[in-house]
Design brief:
It contains three helices and no strands. It has 120 residues and is mainly α. The protein has a domain of 76 residues. Helix 2 packs antiparallel against helix 3. The longest helix has 34 residues. It is elongated, with a radius of gyration of 20 Å. The termini are far apart.
């Protein structure tokens, strides 16, 4: 049986990919509108996938709590799990709004082209 990577590794990879994008798009490095168009499309897909990630994390926390396998350094485990699940639900809603805004930006970018005629 193949060993799979821990789930948090994928989240770290996604975060690192965004950091790499930020460095790649320092002022002057995004040269063509098609680069923005495709980048926004990719970020839209990322945002659309986040709610599932947050939901599955919440389900896992609830399952672990129900199994009695969680402990807390202070306070009640149920309170901490409840706060985390509520915050993940809110993050999911925000991710949906982010996806909608990126969809609008993607649509707005679609008719934009590049003109290399510097005489205009």
């Amino acid at each position: 049986m193949a060993t799979s990577r821990p789930p948090q590794d994928s989240a770290h990879t996604a975060a690192e990919a965004v950091r790499t994008f930020n460095h790649a798009t320092f002022p002057g490095n995004l040269l063509y509108p098609v680069q923005a168009y495709h980048s926004v499309a990719a970020f839209k897909v990322l945002a659309q996938r986040l709610p599932q990630s947050f939901d599955q994390t919440s389900r896992a926390l609830n399952r672990l709590h129900a199994d009695g396998t969680l402990t807390a350094d202070y306070g009640r485990v149920a309170d901490h799990v409840g706060k985390a699940v509520a915050a993940l639900a809110e993050a999911s809603r925000y991710a949906g709004m982010l996806a909608d805004a990126l969809d609008q930006a993607h649509n707005a970018l679609s008719p934009i082209g590049f003109c290399d005629d510097t005489d205009n």
